[in-house]
Every structure is written in structure tokens, then in C-alpha cells.
């Protein structure tokens, strides 16, 4: 599922139908004759305006961030998980410290919670007015309908993410499979090059898996593969990219300044495996410009092979 902390405003893949949401919010503001309408996302970083109605009277453009401690209307909607209609905020002392009231001069707010399919809060859809308002109840129902449209998009988004995750991960270990590795690792090598990060590639091949299968059964073999995946996860950093390429072959694309760092990583995996009476052969290369990812993989595989047959 799409991670609830992932900000949709920063969606670079164009999966979030922001244009459609923009039209929805513009129509909503027009129907309410309200000077500002929004879709706002909540994450632990705070509240971010994802869509702002396209009007000069609207002081908050899309992208604006509001700290999670600020006493804004949307915060109450997210915290309580229910609709909030404030007819005339200056009459309610709890909004004295709300900058939307105290600084921008808003008086009226109507907002509904928007949730991810999991039920976790996504944020809100809301309209605000500089005048006190008295909306008819069917207007309030209308915001509910628009909220449902946005929630339906979030559902599609989550399903899409789930399907791509399935196509990119290995069932047995939960690591990336070859397709996932090639996709993520090629993005990562481009980013690393841009930011001057140096990367290394480790190629790992479990020793004697056939023997384990033959002597202890296939499920013991599966367990040995999972142990290697766990060992890999326990030593890599958050941004490193681990994968099971096939059968007993694994790779890690990892941040590494030099060969020593890469060797240390490999030694730590070997030592965790040893604690489990298992063994793995590892070959490592530092990546620099001039070769494709596929070529680096072949080179690391060759080093692993040399290592396996020298010991
Ligand atoms: N249990 C289990 N075995 C697998 C899986 N995928 C591949 N294998 C087995 O892994 C074995 C790999 O054999 P080899 O390539 O000879 O590897 P090895 O026995 O580890 O020998 P070396 O790599 O030379 O150390 C084969 O017997 C495959 O059937 C899997 O998902 N689960």
C-alpha cells in the first residue's frame, strides 16, 4: 500500500490525479461561493495544501506547509476524524490562536476528513470564507460526495502500488526481485551520481543450498534463504537496495566510500550466517561511471565466483 506518510504533492510519477482534484476543488469553491477551498494532506511533518482553489482571494497556494502544532481547523478534523463546521470562528474562543482566523481573517470553515483505504487519515477537503456562513445541509452532503471521489482515487492509488509491489518483490524473502532491483537500483545510481554518493555492489551466493535441500528438505532450504535475507537486512542502511535475483543469488547496492567499507559489509553478513551454521560467498565491486548496472552485476558475480572457488 502507498505509505500514509508519503506526500502526494511530491508525487513525481504522476499517479495522483492532481488535475482532477483541482477541478473538484474549484467547483466546490464556486458552488459555495467561498473564497478558498482545499485538499490538505496530513503527515507527521505537518499539514500540506495539496490542492488550493484557483482564486486570487485564496491566500494559501498548493504546496504550503503548516506545522503539526498549529491550531488550524483541518487539524481538528484529522484528530477527531469527523466533519467540522464553524459558522463564525471569532465567536468561538478555541480559534483565537488559529492564524487562519487571527491573521488571514477567515470566519467560516467547513471540512470533512479524507481517509486512506486502510482507514488512516489522509487529510481533509474543506472550504473557508471571510464571512460568517449558514450552509444548507445538502451543501454539506455535497462535500461528502466530493470527499468520496477523492477517497476512490486513493483506493486506486493504493491498489496500483500494491500490484507494483507484488511485481517487484520476491515472495520468499520480501526483498526486491530482479525486476524490482533493476528498477530501483537504476533510479538510485542516477541519484547517487547527481549527489556525489559512491556506491558499491555486493553479489552473494549461498553455499551448499542443494545439499541442504537434499539432506534436510526443501523447507529447510527456504529457511536458509530467509536467514540470508534477514542477515542482509540486519546490516544494510535504510537506503541500500537488497534483492534476491534468483534461486540462491542475492545482491545489494549499498552506499560505500571504498572497498574497505564494502568488505566490512560483506564480513558482517558472513558472520551472521556463520552464527546460523550457514555460509555465503560474496563478491564486491565499487561502482563508478563507464559501465551499465548490468555490467557491474556481471563483474560482481565474477568476483563472487572467484571467491567461491578459491575457498
Ligand atoms: N529450498 C529452495 N531451494 C531453491 C530455491 N531456489 C533454488 N533452489 C535450489 O538451490 C540449489 C542451487 O544449487 P547450486 O546453484 O548448485 O548452489 P549450491 O548448492 O548452493 O552450490 P554452490 O552455489 O556452488 O555453493 C538448487 O538445488 C535449487 O533447486 C528456493 O526457492 N528454495
TrEMBL record:
Signal peptide: none annotated. GO terms for molecular function: diguanylate cyclase activity. It catalyses: 2 GTP = 3',3'-c-di-GMP + 2 diphosphate. Residues 197-311 form the GGDEF domain. It holds the Pfam family GGDEF. One of its GO terms (biological process) is cell adhesion involved in single-species biofilm formation. SMART domains: GAF, GGDEF. InterPro entries: Diguanylate_Cyclase, GAF, GAF-like_dom_sf, GGDEF_dom, Nucleotide_cyclase, Rev_trsase/Diguanyl_cyclase. Its EC number is 2.7.7.65. GO terms for cellular component: plasma membrane. It is an enzyme of class 2 (transferase). PANTHER family: DIGUANYLATE CYCLASE DGCM-RELATED, REGULATORY COMPONENTS OF SENSORY TRANSDUCTION SYSTEM. This is diguanylate cyclase. It comes from Neptuniibacter caesariensis.
Amino acid at each position: 500500500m502507498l505509505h500514509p506518510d508519503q506526500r502526494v504533492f511530491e508525487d513525481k510519477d504522476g499517479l495522483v490525479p492532481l488535475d482532477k482534484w483541482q477541478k473538484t476543488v474549484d467547483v466546490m469553491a464556486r458552488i459555495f461561493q467561498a473564497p478558498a477551498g482545499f485538499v490538505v494532506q496530513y503527515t507527521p511533518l505537518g499539514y500540506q495544501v495539496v490542492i488550493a482553489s484557483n482564486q486570487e482571494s485564496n491566500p494559501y497556494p498548493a504546496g504550503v506547509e503548516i506545522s503539526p502544532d498549529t491550531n488550524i481547523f483541518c487539524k481538528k478534523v484529522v484528530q477527531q476524524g469527523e466533519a467540522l463546521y464553524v459558522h463564525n470562528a471569532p465567536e468561538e474562543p478555541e480559534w483565537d490562536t488559529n492564524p487562519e482566523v487571527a491573521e488571514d481573517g477567515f470566519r467560516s470553515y467547513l471540512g470533512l476528513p479524507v481517509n486512506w483505504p486502510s482507514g488512516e487519515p489522509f487529510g481533509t477537503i474543506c472550504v473557508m470564507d471571510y464571512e460568517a456562513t449558514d450552509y444548507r445541509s445538502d451543501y454539506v452532503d455535497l462535500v461528502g460526495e466530493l470527499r468520496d471521489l477523492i477517497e476512490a482515487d486513493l483506493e486506486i492509488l493504493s491498489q496500483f502500488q500494491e500490484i507494483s509491489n507484488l511485481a517487484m518483490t520476491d515472495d520468499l524473502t520480501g526483498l526486491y526481485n530482479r525486476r524490482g532491483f533493476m528498477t530501483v537500483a537504476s533510479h538510485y545510481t542516477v541519484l547517487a551520481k547527481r549527489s556525489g554518493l559512491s556506491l558499491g555492489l555486493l553479489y552473494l551466493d549461498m553455499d551448499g543450498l542443494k545439499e541442504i535441500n537434499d539432506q534436510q528438505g526443501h523447507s529447510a532450504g527456504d529457511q536458509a534463504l530467509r536467514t540470508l535475507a534477514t542477515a542482509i537486512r540486519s546490516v544494510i542502511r535504510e537506503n541500500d537496495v537488497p534483492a534476491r535475483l534468483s534461486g540462491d543469488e542475492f545482491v545489494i547496492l549499498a552506499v560505500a566510500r571504498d572497498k574497505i567499507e564494502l568488505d566490512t559489509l560483506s564480513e558482517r553478513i558472513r558472520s551472521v550466517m556463520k552464527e546460523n551454521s550457514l555460509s555465503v560467498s560474496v563478491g564486491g565491486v565499487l561502482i563508478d561511471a563507464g559501465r551499465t548496472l548490468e555490467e557491474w552485476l556481471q563483474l560482481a558475480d565474477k568476483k563472487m565466483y572467484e571467491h567461491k572457488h578459491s575457498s
